[in-house]
Write a structure and sequence with these properties.
The structure is a homodimer of 212-residue chains.
Chain A (H helix, E strand, L loop, with lengths): L3 H24 L6 H7 L4 H7 L3 H25 L5 H15 L6 H13 L4 H27 L8 H21 L5 H19 L10
Chain A binds a DNA duplex (30 and 30 nucleotides) through helix 1 and helix 3.
Chain lengths: 212, 212
DNA sequence: AAAAAAAATTGAACGCATTCATTTTTTCAG
DNA sequence: CTGAAAAAATGAATGCGTTCAATTTTTTTT
């Protein structure tokens, strides 16, 4: 049976996360003061730091949730991709983009990206890049699936192209988070143009009729 | 004739920038305290803030110098690119990479990237992205030059591919700055693999002999 | 059930970027 | 040269994330 101590710990953890998440959503990550989070969670500032390493740690918890859900959804696309290379890539990337503002605001994303770059040796950063790598791998897996099926040229370097495409979708997403006025639809359109440019190059070479 | 006031202002400006640059190089951007910079520049903390908006402003001055020099060098490559698409892209990108640690450390780059993402409405950010855009445009210009010359397919979307390639070289560079142990040679090799994957797709279609 | 040990809570104190009211220096009109 | 006005310099004060020595609560031991 869970002891008092254990139960209280779980309750406080939840309480802090809930309070932080709410405040981040209301006033933003930067403007959310630790005192305010602690107060809302009915805990002292010192106790807050007993539960979370620092402010960034809170953000990481939320980012992890977001990316894990999106990875899960992405699996379905990779398992059964649309018919054309263009449609398949757009389907996967849309999965990512469309989910992106469910738990996080643009400001929270910006902060997460900034923190991950600035302090690479931090647990925050390590975890963030683990998630990034998983997404990039999913893009590569999609490309490989398309190659096996003959939708795109087999001689293309799927790993390299997966990395390139992920870097690009990431850069476009960063641009999206940096423009508060930009709607998701604009992001999708930009991505569609880039995907079209790439898939235009990826069509398999025509094979002479009757060739083995 | 320049008055006393004007002359002193210029001298102090130079003094602060020199002191900051030296300290950044010695102890890093984050560890460089404003008091220390001010003291080294023989100026009070208050005066420091009279000359620079904030600490990031110092970094921006150094980043600007770096990127401007590299853009200048890049022009030469775009004006007279190597014979193959692969060699041309590698030449341009190497120009960027090889210059990158002249004025800045990896930590300074990381900080600059992080700041530019985190506070997009800041003068820092605006200037940083102006520089980024200029670099991306240079990649696109190179591609267009190669198209005109027939080195790569004319039906490719140069603007989109330029953006994709720039996003990728940027992502690889970010990875480089985040690994203190990684040498420039590793970065170049990664980029070479990606460039090879892309240029493999960019070869112009064979034209039947004798076609107009 | 009392005492000792272990674990967790607490808020005052610290470091550091930035701000601001006050003082000093420079300019310039008379 | 003098005194008023303008500009710049100054360092103490502020805000905020994080740390830590002291206190309180919970668990274990006897």
């Amino acid at each position: 049976m869970a002891g008092l101590r254990e139960r209280q710990k779980a309750k406080r953890n939840r309480s802090i996360l809930t309070a932080a998440s709410a405040l981040f959503g209301q006033v933003g990550y930067e403007a959310a003061r630790i005192d305010a989070i602690a107060e809302a969670a009915e805990v002292s500032v010192g106790t807050f730091y007993n539960y979370f390493e620092n402010k960034a740690d809170l953000l990481l918890a939320i980012v992890s949730m977001e990316v894990e859900e999106v990875l899960h959804q992405g699996e379905a696309v990779v398992a059964a991709p649309p018919a054309t290379a263009e449609a398949a890539l757009l389907a996967l990337i849309s999965t990512y983009y469309d989910h992106s503002l469910v738990y996080l605001t643009k400001e929270m994303w910006r902060t997460a990206m900034a923190l991950s770059i600035q302090h690479p040796e931090t647990p925050f950063s390590r975890r963030y890049f683990e998630l990034d790598a998983a997404l990039a791998d999913q893009v590569t897996a999609l490309l490989r699936g398309l190659q096996v099926r003959g939708t795109i040229r087999r001689d293309a370097d799927a790993a390299a192209l997966g990395a390139v495409i992920f870097a690009d979708l990431n850069a476009l997403f960063a641009g999206f988070t940096m423009d508060e006025a930009m709607p998701l639809s604009s992001l999708s359109m930009q991505m569609a143009a880039h995907v079209a440019a790439l898939t235009g190059l990826l069509a398999p070479p025509l094979r002479p009729v009757g060739a083995s």
